[in-house]
Specification:
- The chain is an alpha+beta fold.
- It has two domains: 1-32 and 129-164; 34-128, Umud Fragment, subunit A.
- The protein contains three helices and seven strands, in the order αβββββββαα.
- A seven-stranded antiparallel β-sheet has the order 1-2-7-3-4-5-6, with helices on one face.
- Helix 1 runs antiparallel to helix 3 (142-171) and helix 2 packs across helix 3 (142-171).
- The longest helix has 30 residues, at 142-171.
- The radius of gyration is 26 Å and the shape is elongated.
- The two termini are 41 Å apart.
């Protein structure tokens, strides 16, 4: 029975460790100023593969140059990551810069310029394939599956302790009062 308990503890420890690492990769990195995005299109292949997670750090848009990769708001609902072809200074206001961008796998440059205020940052590293899992967890039914898996993990961790307590209670006789 002790061998089974040791194996059980090892398995649950590995599962909990995997969940903690996943939580760090998806959430805790925000504490270090990184934002996490999933690559949903092949426009930046082979630099960033579809399904990868990219970790983006804020940058000063006025220090960006041609060749730098930026993550930016394309519109209210869409974030894109493309390479800067060239910075385009505003002709009337020198405090404004826009960027001509292009995906590495795209034949043509993007149709509109990216205003410097729409630049979120530059990718600092990527983890291939993890974006598929992150995207699944962030949207139903994946959210519900993740919650259920979390509840099951909690039960698996504490289940052996519950049975052990029952065995101890059954094996002990109540104390007799002397008087």
């Amino acid at each position: 029975m002790k061998a089974i308990k040791k194996i059980w503890n090892a398995i649950t420890t590995l599962i909990v460790a995997a969940v903690v690492v996943l939580a760090i990769l998806l959430v805790a990195v925000r504490l270090f100023g990184l934002q996490v995005y999933t690559v949903l299109s092949g426009s930046m292949e082979p630099t960033y593969h579809v399904g990868s997670l990219i970790y983006v750090q804020k940058v000063d848009p006025f220090e960006l140059e041609a060749g730098d990769v930026i993550t930016f708001m394309l519109d209210e609902d869409t974030v894109a990551t493309h390479r800067i072809v060239e910075p385009v200074p505003d002709e009337t206001d020198s405090s404004v810069v826009r960027f001509r961008t292009k995906g590495d796998a795209n034949d043509a440059e993007d149709g509109s310029l990216v205003h410097y205020k729409n630049v979120i940052g530059s990718p600092v590293f990527t983890i291939p394939k993890l974006g598929y899992l992150a995207n699944y967890i962030q949207n139903p039914p994946g959210t519900y599956v993740a919650i259920a898996v979390g509840a099951i993990i909690i039960m698996l961790v504490f289940l052996p302790d519950l049975f052990e307590d029952d065995k101890k209670n059954k094996g002990e006789e109540p104390a007799k009062k002397e008087g």
